[in-house]
Amino acid sequence: MGTTQRRRPELAAFLRSRRARVTPQDVGMPPGLRRRTPGLRREEVAQLSGVGVTWYTWLEQGRPINASAQVLDAVARTLRLDPPEREHLYHLAEVPFAAVSRTPVLSVGPQMQGILDALEPRPAVVYNARYDILATNGSYRDVFAFSGRVRIEGVTNVLWTLFTEPEEDCPLVFRDDELPVMVATMRASYGLHAGEPVWEDFIRRLSAASPLFARLWESGDVARPGRRVKIFRHAEVGELRMTSVSLSIDGMPECRIVVYTPDDEETERKATWLHKKSRPLEGTGF
């Protein structure tokens, strides 16, 4: 059975189950006469969604009809779908899904901080889609001297730091290779935020502050977060060869944990030394 053939029965079952849980009272309609089945009737969903009864019936029957995003949104509102259910509806109807734009996440809770701390001695950080640093563990602060560099909305931003500070202070050894990837990664998320004042102001200000960023941004390249081997320079221990891995976070859209793991034994020794140096009493019993 092909993908479309499998999705249509799933779409039909999903719409029926969502319709059954919405009562007339939920949508401001009188209960009317006794109903054979719970929930709204098909014609009521069609009326409330502003679509034809025949069209909605065919949609719920899983027939191969075209549905626009606007119509699916109307149906989703009528059926009181939450964000995960709305996305599921789009996928089953084979309509490209665009997440609802949200205000950027600028902080994390104690549980997330606890996860970062549990990853010690591996450096770990939480970024949002704009590369704002939302939280770090101690090992990240040992390796990267980003703390205190507040650039936007009271949050340290890695891109702003990397593009506006002197090149000799950049911790990336292969700066010309890594910065284009970071800009392309941010641009992949920009499509959801194009036109938003916070994003547009950030891009405008950073473009004015850094001709290099402006040129890379204008290239239009896009990329997704992923595993990469990066080489960093540290004032005390020299070069550190690290593998970075990005992990998505449930409940925090467009945010990710990035964990850095030593890629060779020498980096492992250096990272361990930095960790112990900043925490000399750990494991001593004092």
Automatic annotation (TrEMBL):
Q: Which GO terms describe its molecular function?
A: DNA binding
Q: Which organism is it from?
A: Streptomyces cupreus
Alphabetical list of SMART domains matching this protein: HTH_XRE
The UniProt entry, under Gene3D superfamilies, shows:
3.30.450.180, lambda repressor-like DNA-binding domains
- Tell me the ranges covered by the HTH cro/C1-type domain, including all copies: 14-86
CDD domains under this entry?
Answer: HTH_XRE
Official protein name in the record? Helix-turn-helix domain-containing protein
- Could you tell me which PANTHER family the record lists for this protein? BLL4672 PROTEIN (PTHR35010:SF2), BLL4672 PROTEIN-RELATED (PTHR35010)
